Amino acid sequence: MIKLYTDAATKGNPGPSAAGVLLVIDGQQIQLKHFLGTLSNHEAEFAATLFAFQQIPKYARSNETIFFFTDSKIVDQSLATNYAKHFQAYVDQINAIQDQFPLVVSQWLPERMNHGAHNLALQALHADNQ
Fold this sequence. Notes:
InterPro entries: RNaseH-like_sf, RNaseH_domain, RNaseH_sf. Residues 1-130 form the RNase H type-1 domain. One of its GO terms (molecular function) is nucleic acid binding. By secondary structure, the protein is α/β, with parallel strands linked by helices. It has a domain at 1-19 and 47-111: Ribonuclease H-like superfamily/Ribonuclease H (Nucleotidyltransferase, domain 5, 2-Layer Sandwich). The protein is built from 4 helices and 5 strands; from the N terminus they run βββαβααβα. The radius of gyration is 14 Å and the shape is globular. The model has no long low-confidence stretch (mean pLDDT 96).
């Protein structure tokens, strides 16, 4: 079982953006951060999610169940319905990766419960701005 937490940080809208990813595999945490470039808030959330799912094969087997947590309602709803008016390309790419796993359970969680991924995104954003 894999727990996957993602978040994006954006300075301005659009503006410099970064992803924070917290993977929990067999009780061990893997912390990832990645600068995304200049994006809108919503696009950064999708880009962070895509980045996160792209990283899973580096750390886990494809027969794992994934529990995916995001504080982005647009990402959560778009993945649940397989539709995002302005971000369909992201939804399609994320779904293609999710299809490689037997089960992906997505859950929205309040921002206050996503501190790990949020702090990693902020670190990546500030590191790139220095």
